[in-house]
Structures are given as C-alpha cells and as structure tokens.
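Q: I have 338 residues here and want to know how they pack in 3D. Can you give me a structure?
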Amino acid sequence: MRTHILGIESSCDETAASVVVDGDDVRSNVVASQVDLHRRYGGVVPEIASRAHIECIHNVIRMGLQEADCTPDDIDAIAVTHRPGLVGSLLIGATAAKTLSWAWQKPLVAVNHVDAHAVSASIGVDPLPFPAVALVVSGGHTSLYSVGGFDSITLLGSTIDDAAGEAFDKVATMLGLGYPGGPVIDRLSPKGNPKAHAFPRTLLARDSLDFSFSGIKTAVRYKIHGTGRTTGGLEKLSESAVTDIAASFQQAVVDVLVKKTMRAVAQTGASNVLLGGGVAANRQLREALASECADRRLTCHAPKMAYCVDNAAMIASLGFHLFKNGQTASLDLDVSSR
C-alpha cells in the first residue's frame, strides 16, 4: 500500500501545497509566490506575507489535491512546516494543516523547513546519498549540516550575521538591480569580470564551519560609493562597472560557500554533498560545487530548480520519512521562528 502525504509550506513568502507518494513520487507541487507583493519594499514584509497566505492557502491546497488527482480519503498524513520562519506566516500553514488533520482524521507531521531543504536534493535519488554534508543557502539561512538520514540531521555551522541570500538582495539593492537580488545577479554575472575586484573571503577560524557575509557587503558598498561613504557613487558607475562588481561579488560568495563545504567534508569524512535552499538555484554555485566535488571524487547532488525555492514537495517528502518512523504531532503543535 502506497503512502500519500499532503505537504503544506508557509514559512515566509511562498504558499505551497504538494502531494508526494512514498517520499519521492511528487504528484503535485503548487507554489504561490509573493515576490510581486514585496518587490516595492526590497524585502519581505511579515504582515503582508501573512495576509497573502490567508488569502490563497485554501486554493493552493485545493489545487495541490486536484493536480495529484487525490481526494482527502487518499491522503494518509498531513505534513506541515512548523519552524523556522516568520511566526505569522507559519501560523497560517499550521492552522490549515491542523484543521484538515482534525476534519479528515489524518495524522499530523511537523517538519523543520531547513531540514527539508537539507535533504531536498535526495528526492528521487536511489540509492539515498547518506551520510552526507548538506549546504543550505537561502535568504534567511546559510548553514552546514551532517546528514546521517532523514531523522539524523545535525547542524555543523551557520551564519553569524547576514545569510548569503540576504547579502545578494542587499548588494543588488546597492547596485540598483531590484529585488530579489539572487536571480538578477546570477543572470548579470556571466557578462562581468569576476576578477575585477578582490572582495574579501571571510573564512573565520581555521576549523570554523560558520559563515559571515557582512564584511563583503560593506566592501561592495565602499566600492560603489567610496571608502566610508554610503551614498553618491552609483550614478557614476558605467553599466560594465556595475556588472563587474556583481560578478566579483558572486565569485567571492561562491568561493566561501564551496570552501566551507569542503571543510565540513574533511571534518566529517562524508563522501556525499547535498545542496539546498533558494541560492541553490545559482548556476555558478551549482557548477563550482559540482566541479570541486568531482575533483575530490565526492558525489554532489543539487535539487531540481522547483525544489530550490520554498516548496511543499520537500515538506511532504521529509514528512513521509518522519511519518514512517512514527514521528507524528498533536493538534496543539506550536510554531517557532527558530
């Protein structure tokens, strides 16, 4: 008998629902993005995000079931993101999941959003690529994990200031490129010279697996406006100068991400590397990590593009494995920003 999991995700600015069978057969993956709502503000506004989740979550879940050709009777359990994320946004998804759990008399499974990103690249992979080091890179998270299995995900290191995705957004704003910053810098960078500017690669202590991107953000600001200045320089830059700054910035960030991941591999002895999170869609990062892994005879798995952004397929997939291990939640499940 096959197990159908309905996944619900609402941790930030995407409302998503998905039906996944037996952990890797993705029958539907519906995502309602809020990028257009937040673009004018240059970042996610929590109250706007919460309101948007309320407005669309019913239709997103309905579409998820329809695309999977499922009825509530077909669903064996409901998996929902309960942490980390924006509390107001998490509450919408959790409330919807708990309501359906009660109404349909289906078990509820609580899923950690970042854990789901850490193993998202394993969806459809046979044999499973564990043990592994997982690099999760997004607007809110830049972390390394040791992954022994779906219920054995241990944090090795994380950012002590800006996340990489956040740095992409801020640098894109400085350069007048718009929001979100990651995709536009990724598109622009191949046209520029990645060696034009030697932006800092902050690696912290020799054995540290933590990240810091505040220094490179400041270095870019000073390159644009002048040392010690925060305004007045952008209008003086040519299009090619902007492109070179974007390319040099992206190169520096990718260099740090790859270097730290290899440190984690050396410390854990893992032979598999997993990539996850919104910045996992960055082409240069995917290529650089795959190349470094190939040189070291490591196996590298990057998620499908559809599983890089916040999505419910990864929630339902991880939820399946937790459910099979007997890890269910009660209807008093709470949410947490951490």
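Q: Anything worth noting?
A: The chain has two domains: 4-119+308-324, 126-302. Residues 239-268 form the longest helix (30 residues).
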